[in-house]
Amino acid sequence: MKDRHTMKRLPILLALLLSFGLILAAAQPITAQPTAELSTTELLEKAIYTEETVGDLPAAIDIYTHIVEADEANRGHVAQAQFRLGMCHAKRGDDAAARAAWDRLIADFPEQEALVSQAQAQLASVQPEVDLAPVPWTDGEFLTYEMSLPTGKVLGSLFLMAQSTTVDGIEAWQLQIRRFGFNQADNYGVSRTLVEAATQRPLRSSIRHGILGHADAVYGPDGVTLTADGGDTFLDFEYPVYDNDQSMHHTRMLPLEVGYEAQLHYLPIWTGKAIEVGLKVKGTEQCRVPAGDFECFKVALDIGQTLWISTGPERYPVKVQAEGVTIKLASIGRTEPGAPVSFALQDFGLSGTLPTDWLSHTYRPRTDKAMVRFLDPAAAAISAIEVDRCPPGRCPTLEETAQRELAGAKRRFQDFELRQESWTERTIDGRDAISFVGTYQKNDASWVQYRIYTVTDDLRLELIFRTPAERFEEQRATFDAITESLRAKSSPLQ
Question: Is the pTM of this model over 0.85?
């Protein structure tokens, strides 16, 4: 993919090269000399003259084909002949042959960057329009997925959401993806893609991720403006481009049937590079996932991934396999705008409430330990509750717990310092608790940890809220509200 200026230069450069050939052809008229006796340069001149001036496309195709099949032809001449061969087929209305010619150019001559870019643009122009089915999801649909390794080890969770909206009088969908990864604290993120309801054309998108960083995009008729790392980049394309983070929803609207094929372009906005994705429906299979049993289309992608989309009218993305990771549909639900979000660990007797549009996910590394991770709508905080079960009456005291965790934070986090007078005795659900605030450095930025501890007869509870220092004061009231919503009672495992 090229930027606007490069994309504008390529047609001009190619036109200059071909015009030079035409000038030579006009100055030195080509006779009926046998094709086999002509050099590659002369053959190319003859083919272009035959195509452009004479207008004899079948004859031009024969000459171009002779060039591309020559054993010792100049690679630059062969690549140019391969491109022109596709153009001749396209002029004759044979789009399949044109696509085959350009595909071969892209595969066999990657070093011919100008011609490859032209071939990619032409490929998009002759690709048949993708007919989309009606939207299969419901307003407020909320799908939960579990990510795991072949061994069964759970890596994290993924959530897909869809909410109808109106923007500047245009009916639209706000499509969201939220991600939790358990392999490290920063592996979390939120993306939002606003798409036009009638066409699924992306309008705006954004991503906030603990590892990938932040990026925003505005899609327009002339291209895409990306904002990342404090700067703007404009990209224009000669083909339709969809946002990468709408791809799961977009695939659901394709007219899937066994044997169906399509070529699509998706833009991961944090990379600034569009990806061409070819897909083919290989057949149907039965899929058993935590959300139930489904008959599915098996959709193979040429980027090394496989999707299973339910054959029913909902077209649920039921399963994904990619790079050794399996993503399975765990539950199907619906969100109500403005409603608070509840969470619970029933076997630990723990429950609470989150603000509207927050998410939670439970991770259980052991039977005696669990973590509930929280994700706010802006992915601005890293929040969690950890609970450990200990033998009744043998949990460390509250003071011991808080002091031990403070010492651990000072060891683990760069330049961790306890804020003066932040050590506070308080209560949670009528039980004594201790909280403190510490600052530390992360990625050359100042962050804050807000930690709160309490203990029951058999449980130790730890709440940790981590956020950039400049946002802590505005978020502290929300953190306190989550803390005050907690209800904890002793309920030993049976």
Answer: no
